[in-house]
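Hey L., structure's done. Input below.
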Amino acid sequence: MPRADFLDRISAEVHRRVVGQEYMIERLLIGMLTGGHVLMEGLPGLAKTLAVRTLAETIDATFQRIQFTPDLLPADVVGTTIYNNRTGEFVPHKGPIFAHIVLADEVNRAPAKVQAALLEAMQERQVTIGGETHPLPQPFLVLATQNPIEQEGTYPLPEAQVDRFMLKVRVGYPTRVEEKEILRRMSGGGHIPINKMAHPDEILAARDQIANLYLDDKIADYILDLVGATRDPGAHGAPDLAPLVEIGASPRATIALAACARAHAFLRGRAYVTPEDVKAIGPDVLRHRIMITYEAEAEEITSDHVVRRIFETVRVP
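Output:
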């Protein structure tokens, strides 16, 4: 299966503005190709917002950015009803969530009630305003950024919302060579125009191809073993992890890992999934779906450590 040409065009166009960050950009493409929402975590200034905005500009689709702040209200996200004096009726006023690509910037700076307002939209692809349900445009994708929760003025996301994100990507600093290129390219302050390289119909067609990508039973069993090891590490050869895991990944993680592995293979022009696809995308699918115990926190052990040990322990087909 050849890689869709429009993906190469999108990637090249995004890199006109964003230097480096290939890992993050590929995860954004995987989210777009699977219809899965992406949560990006990293310190301010690492091009998270720039990458999302630029990706949206390469597609002939609607885009909205929502800046999450402590005083944001749910109606500011999904919309509300407004009284029409002329007709004497309440009419819906749709919020910025009604777009193909929505950038939820610094999503963990808003209180839990606002974060929860995203749940129905992210899961059901619809919004209820004044008792009336409104479908969201297709494709619909929430790309969210968050600052590390240790930073001042941040709120931890509810577990139910975190689980709605297919991928959680950690964004790091650029290399010295990349930062020098950023300095050269951006210090002049000139605007870098971006051309539209794809249509939403191409994305939906690619999704159909990816959904039919071959996934062998042995790969399916490998995915089941990995997710099962997050729930019962002892039964999968990692008894030392049992005291560190409070709650493992849900079946939603199993579905997400299979879908993302297919998209990862598609990006490499293959018509079948390999264990390497699962290994490459696995940490981004699982890290936010594992709740560690207080004992693990006391020992400064993170969910990334648990996921890494699981991939080292579970037998590869």
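The mean pLDDT is 86. Residues 213-313 form a domain with the Helicase, Ruva Protein; domain 3 fold (CATH 1.10.8.80).

-- N.
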